[in-house]
Amino acid sequence: MRNVFLLLLVMMSSMSHAVQSVVVEGATVRIMPPTLMNTAGYLSLTNRGKTTLSLVSASSSFAQKVEIHGHEMVDGIMHMLKKERVSISPGQQAVFQPGGLHLMLFGINPHYRHVEQIDLQLTFSDGSVIKVDASVVGVETNAHQQHKTHQHHHHQHE
Q1: Which end of the chain is least crowded, N or C, by CB within 10 Å?
Q2: Can you tell me the distance from the alpha carbon of 57 to that of 59, in angstroms, rounded to the nearest whole number?
Q3: What's the rounded Cα separation, in Å, for the pair 106 and 104?
């Protein structure tokens, strides 16, 4: 029994270490007009660990579905495309911003317009999950300005 406890303790500490190696800053979600049921989320992810990690999915209690999206030029036309993952090498940063990588929230709960923050859960390739409170901002708010506030989020492993 003692060995099982020690094994669980070692496993939990290594998983916790992986989560703490990713820093999330400037998480925001845009308020869209009431007729639109989708919106975009922006943030930056910095990998302070020693191995490459990938964001593989995201979710929120305020949306039916959250997907990772990016923009890509295809035959001279810019297209928004779903991405299966975003890899972040050690010491590197992935910036989710207008016109680039972003989180697409589908089937958004209309009550999000009346709160200051909504929850996001970010799942990584190592199985770790980071819970983030994203600020709800108007369309006119520049996500880059939100990024400058350097809102650090505490990471919790599920």
Answers
A1: N
A2: 7
A3: 6
Query: Which helix (DSSP H) or strand (DSSP E) does residue 3 occupy?
Result: helix 2-20
List of residues 6+ apart from 75 with CB closer than 8 A: none
Asked if the model's pLDDT at residue 139 lies above 90, the reply is: no
Partners of residue 140 on adjacent β-strands:
none
Residue found under tokens 């492993």: 157
How many CA atoms are closer than 13 Å to the CA of 89, on its beta-carbon side?
A: 1
- Amino acid in the structure at residue 148: K
Among the residues of 31-103, which ranges form H helices?
none
Measure the CA–CA gap between 86 and 101, rounded to whole angstroms. Answer: 9
- Residue 6: its pLDDT value, please? 40
Residue 13 scores a pLDDT above 60: no
Return the amino acid letter for 115: V
Structure tokens at 123: 């799942």
Instruction: Supply the pLDDT for residue 140.
Output: 56
Longest CA span, the chain: 63
Residue 42 pLDDT more than 80? Answer: yes
CB 108 within 8 A of CB 63: yes
